[in-house]
Amino acid sequence: MVTFVDRVTLHLRAGKGGNGCVSVRREKFKPLAGPDGGNGGDGGEIVLVADPQVTTLLSYHHSPHRSAGNGGFGMGDNRSGAEGEDVELAVPIGTVVKDPEGDTLVDMVEPGMRFVVAPGGRGGLGNAALATPKRKAPGFALLGTPGWEGDVVLELKTVADVALVGFPSAGKSSLIAAISAARPKIADYPFTTLHPNLGVVQAGDVRFTVADVPGLIEGASEGKGLGLEFLRHVERCTALVHVLDCATLEPGRDPLTDLDVILAELAAYPVPEGQIPLLERPQLIALNKVDVPEAKDLADLVRPDLEERGYRVFEISTVSHEGLRQLSFALGDIISRHRAEEAEKPAAPRVVIRPKGADKEFQIRVEGGTYGPLYRVLGDKPVRWVQQTDFQNEEAVGFLADRLEKLGVEDGLFRAGATPGATVVIGGGDGIVFDWQPALSSAAELMTAPRGTDPRLDQSTRRTTSQRRERYHEMMDAKAAARAELEAERLMTTAELESERLGHDAEDAE
Q1: 156, 179, 207: which is the final residue of a domain?
Q2: Residue 493, marked binder
Q3: 198 assigned ligand-binding residue
Q4: 452 known ligand binder
Q5: What does the subunit comment say (predicted)?
Q6: Is the same domain home to 243 and 107?
Q7: Residue 73, annotated ligand binder?
Q8: Does 212 show up as a binding residue in the annotation?
Q9: pTM for this entry
């Protein structure tokens, strides 16, 4: 049994870029002939392609995890790594690509339309590409960056000119089979149609497509029955045809009541911003099954009421094909007029993408923390540079510091109130954490010396003559004080000894 799937979540992982190579060329009589490390290859990307031959998202429902190939590592002798293999995913025309939050990324409405949904990682530069006149033999290379990884939601909205709507078993599938080459499943029980069917109708010189939307019931816009799942397929249609069953045997049902219920459900369904509400689009009434005598009498009875509401009414039979030609030509006239109006509309303005200014390439956000403020640096360049840095290589870390300083990150940290030793995080989430120590060229804001002086330039430690003289006098004063203290202690000891001797002589005399 074929299953129709019109909504699926894809788990994607683009390819990782390959690392650059650190290599030094060696030739005869030239043991160190210069760096020749090649660049890493870019990671493969995942591309969505609108394919007219694909009508369902079933394959992605069974296999939602897709990944692209990784880029190869760079090699010596200036050999670059291989590019990662791209992955192309064919989707039906009319597929809307959304992020997990529900925001629309792209609407695949044109055949052959391509959209890179998961960009691959960038390959790292080898030391040959990093060589400069000042850095002739770099001892490091850049690492490859990881590819995009995350989830996207694919939602299929049928691209058709006309939508057939009505209650279950109203004859919509029979109608599309009678006016086109489509062969949907037809049976005499409700909800036979479990997915929209498309058919191509030729009415004179006009060719248009018709979509058979699964049966709607009361409460469909709130999730009852199958209506909520498939009302989205009505959004793109230019005109609506209400197929009303004139031969139903269910109690409490008649064409007028069925029409009121369907109109209420269409009115309650919100269309995307910028689209015409469903009930404001051209609508026709098709009173079906008039080949049955009782149904013919009921159609003649309700037709005046429907025409009084302003609808064009057609009495049809999918068995005898009565009224189908008139209905097809009426729809063709509506579609041709709509296409002419669309052709006269001015073309959409071109979207010009301008490069971002240097002051917008990063932003610094101050966040509170348990041990003081935390300064988070966000931006494509700083995050990518950190991903490309091998933190086991001191030269690579120094290269990263130079790049961040040239970008203006350190000046931005000063303006944000950061001080030496502050915690700085580059990137979202945990990111890369640093204990920030500003470079020499960016520490002017910390200087407290008088204007016109710079204590960083005062590196002399030699004492002047006055300092040496002062030090000499301090030393001599200290020696004199020590001698006086020793002399005082000596005199005190002599006096104590003399007093003790006199005491002993007095005792002997007695």
Answers
A1: 156
A2: no
A3: no
A4: no
A5: Monomer.
A6: no
A7: no
A8: yes
A9: 0.65
